[in-house]
Write a structure and sequence with these properties.
mainly alpha, 301 residues
């Protein structure tokens, strides 16, 4: 081994680092090259179409709109548009409430069962998300049709068959089914971090199990509820496939009207105006929700 010579040291590197030797060459940080394809994809398929659609609200006009903010005025001043916008927010709000009511017991149960059953319940959530949205919506079509299983059960009980497809409740149930995992997963991530000894300590100090849950456990779960509610509400505002399949033109949501103006009437300015209104109201709601969350955290502090 005496004939093997060690590699020469970089003297300049030793002097620059105060006597500590460093390798002669180091691999360059290539994060920019890794991120470049993703950035290009987002710019081409998300940023550019979004900006173009929003700009058309102020540059593309159909009679009687001529210039300026006429498209925005059409989107806000039309009685039908206001009704559809209000209906969209009501359906999104109800979907958020129902998702929370269903997801909270599910996530709470996940924190109480064994690891094996936690894995099974988490797998059911993930499998539900991996199924295509069209498949999930058409499964409701099979259930809700006049000759479907639900109406067969109603008829077997001696009642008249009920028209379910094309109604707002059908849309609401379909949207809740699709968005349920987006509420359950944030809730579970918060609930699993809550120490169960806290409620036991409250009960040892005289609180009833109900009061211990409402005054100790539930406030600690608020961040999970808030995150899930915000995610579900924002996603529900832009839902198109579920209202188009399970709903009807008489119960349209704003996404259906936007698509009709864009694809059916080629009124790009009006569709852009509806997109601007929806984006502005969504951002206002998110900003308000964040302000309320920060205020509650400051109060707790």
């Amino acid at each position: 081994m005496a004939g093997i010579k060690p590699p020469p040291l970089d003297v300049s590197a030793i002097s620059a680092t105060g006597g500590t030797a460093r390798p002669l060459s180091q691999p360059r940080d290539a994060w920019g090259l890794v991120a470049l394809p993703i950035i290009l994809f987002l710019v081409v398929f998300f940023a550019y179409p979004t900006v173009l659609t929003l700009l058309r609200a102020f540059t593309h006009f159909d009679a009687p709109e001529v210039d300026g903010l006429d498209n925005i005025s059409w989107a806000l001043n039309g009685g039908a548009n206001r009704t559809i916008l209000i209906r969209t927010f009501v359906v999104a709000g109800l979907c958020t409430v129902f998702s929370a009511l269903l997801a909270f017991p599910y996530a709470y149960l996940m924190t109480k069962v064994s690891i094996r059953w936690q894995t099974v319940m988490m797998g059911l959530l993930l499998v539900s998300m991996f199924f295509g949205i069209l498949l999930r919506n058409f499964s409701w079509v099979v259930l809700f049709q006049m000759q479907g299983p639900l109406n067969d059960l109603i008829s077997a009980l001696g009642f008249e068959r009920v028209r379910m497809l094309g109604t707002s409740p059908a849309v609401l149930m379909g949207m809740t089914h699709v968005l349920f995992p987006f509420m359950a997963l944030p809730l579970y991530s918060v609930l699993k971090g809550i120490d169960p000894q806290l409620t036991l300590a409250a009960q040892s100090l005289g609180a009833t199990p109900r009061n211990a849950f409402l005054q100790v456990y539930l406030p600690l779960a608020v961040p999970g509820l808030f995150a899930g509610a915000l995610l579900v509400f924002v996603l529900a505002l832009g839902f198109y496939i579920t209202p188009a399949i399970l709903g009807s033109p008489k119960q349209s949501l704003i996404s259906q009207v936007l698509y009709e103006q864009f694809d059916g009437s080629a009124a790009f300015g009006r569709s852009g105006a509806l997109a601007v209104v929806l984006l502005a109201t969504t951002m206002a709601f998110v900003s308000l929700a964040n302000a309320l969350l920060k205020r509650s955290k400051a109060y707790e502090g």
